[in-house]
Amino acid sequence: xxxxxxxxxxxxxxxxxxxxxxxxxxxxxxxxxxxxxxxxxxxxxxxxxxxxxxxxxxxxxxxxxxxxxxxxxxxxxxxxxxxxxxxxxxxxxxxxxxxxxxxxxxxxxxxxxxxxxxxxxxxxxxxxxxxxxxxxxxxxxxxxxxxxxxxxxxxxxxxxxxxxxxxxxxxxxxxxxxxxxxxxxxxxxxxxxxxxxxxxxxxxxxxxxxxxxxxxxxxxxxxxxxxxxxxxxxxxxxxxxxxxxxxxxxxxxxxxxxxxxxxxxxxxxxxxxxxxxxxxxxxxxxxxxxxxxxxxxxxxxxxxxxxxxxxxxxxxxxxxxxxxxxxxxxxxxxxxxxxxxxxxxxxxxxxxxxxxxxxxxxxxxxxxx
Length: 369
Prior knowledge:
Largest sheet: 7 strands, antiparallel
CATH superfamily of the domain at 284-367: PDZ domain
CATH architecture of the domain at 284-367: Roll
Distance between the termini: 117 Å
Order of helices and strands: HHEEEEEEEEEEEEHEHEEEHEE
Number of strands: 18
């Protein structure tokens, strides 16, 4: 009986040993697989990490180069939305007023210039010295060639001047670098009753309110000129700038009337790209049905939106009484009129125009001149 027990123990021992060998070999294989898998995944993650890091650094380098290059008018700066009026004032003083310039067109006296010597005000559009001044009569343009411009506490001379007769805007190029640039806002998107800042110089401003958006009434306007104006609740001196509470420049004004900032952008963009000012022209006079009051049914044919061709037209495709409905499928409405849609196009662009002629809808393709 004892020998049988010993034999059974030996058999159990051999069996346990074989089982332990089996599990040891299985665990060892698992361990090997785990290690190899870790190595592969580690290498892969390293490669991906390197790729992601390289991509990130590449993007960062590109953005850095963009920041160190002259900031152009088509670049939007981050918008700061103030939480209170006091914060808006502080932001205007710190970030916006440094972009405002004063122009002196007379010789300085023995003690320099005084505030009475300021002839005009403008705003810096690019870090390399382009400045815009609005409400300039053509007869005054030549006097700016020898003007002195105070920008960010320094006096600069004018190296170049270009005049846009459509908006009466004078663009001056200063011999300057790294100037503070204004943030650009949308004057046409302002709301009635919205509070704004009227800036008379880099050191003086006062609050005002947008009281109305106005269009020509009972008369036709040109498709090639901006029609909309903003109206303030108070009269201000000539040539002032208007900023919203976020510190973005949204317009240029005279008395109570403000030209939205977007109106000068087509001219300035073409100046930067082609060294001259050019605008896409359709060449028609029209009445904006969206904002005309009590126009006759005979002319409007019951349409509430569209551009009624009325008056002299330089475009052979349209007749007096036609109502332009869409430009490249974009409808003319109370939010965006004919002139504002055309601002999005350049000279030579081909556009598709849908219009109503005596109740019949037609479509024609036109090349903008």
